[in-house]
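ENTRY TYPE: paired fold submission
RECORD: A
CONTENT: sequence, then structure tokens
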Amino acid sequence: MPEGNSPAPAPTRRSDATRTAILDAARERFAADGYERATIRAIAKDANIDPSMVMRYYGNKERLFAAAVSLDLRLPDLAALPREEVGRTLVSHFIALWEENGELTAILRVSATNAAGAERMQGVFRDQLLPVARQVCPDPEQVPARSALCAAQLLGLALTRYVLRFPPAVALTREEIVAWLAPTVQRYLTAPSP
């Protein structure tokens, strides 16, 4: 290469673009149809590729699902907050995530009816929610139970609002949801044991 010339930028690899198209199509299909009804053929059609390409990159539907819904909840550092704000902060964070991230809806639908989805949701709970709860729970031995109660509240809301779409749950504003749920989540995380 002549001196002073910089190398041409590497073209985007076709395989990267194909993987991205497959994952985008899979997220949308899993969110819309759930795990059982989503098919490799439908996902490939949505991505404008041959179904064999999906199998080439991901092997099977279960591995595709795992790749498509790898979730980082980006949970806030609760230890850095005033203790009385943890419930409000956590509920506000989850509402924003649910409203901006179709992957969460997909994994919730799938986890209710499929072992792979349930395992994925359990992994998110274990790897992401438990460590955050440890930051504020007064008794380390109660962290799993307190975290499970928080998850029950947040997932129950998500199920009724984003999956089942109960009209009263859908009609609530973000502010109303936070006002109703934050005190309960706060109590689960920080109140003395009953």
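RECORD: B
CONTENT: sequence, then structure tokens
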Amino acid sequence: MSELSNYGITLNANTVHSKQFGKKLRGYDPDEVDDFLDDIIKDYARMQDLVHKYEADLAAIHMELLKNKESYDQFMIKRRIEDLEMRVFGEKRELLRPRV
């Protein structure tokens, strides 16, 4: 799993949760601000979970592509051999194959 900073994201649920603000005589209602920050924390935590899930999904897809590429490469090699046999031996190539 990677860190979100790899994507240019500097905040996460913990940094938002631990942020302290100074008190002023006038300003916003601290309870409203806390409630809003709680919503932001939930969103950041969910986003981080999604990033990790998508990274895992991407890694699995990448592995599947590599596996399929190997299968495709093997298929293409077999086809090229068959084409070469046909050019060299023509229709008689079937007679050269071992029978099982």
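NOTES ON RECORD B: The chain has one domain: 9-19+27-96. The radius of gyration is 30 Å.
STATUS: closed
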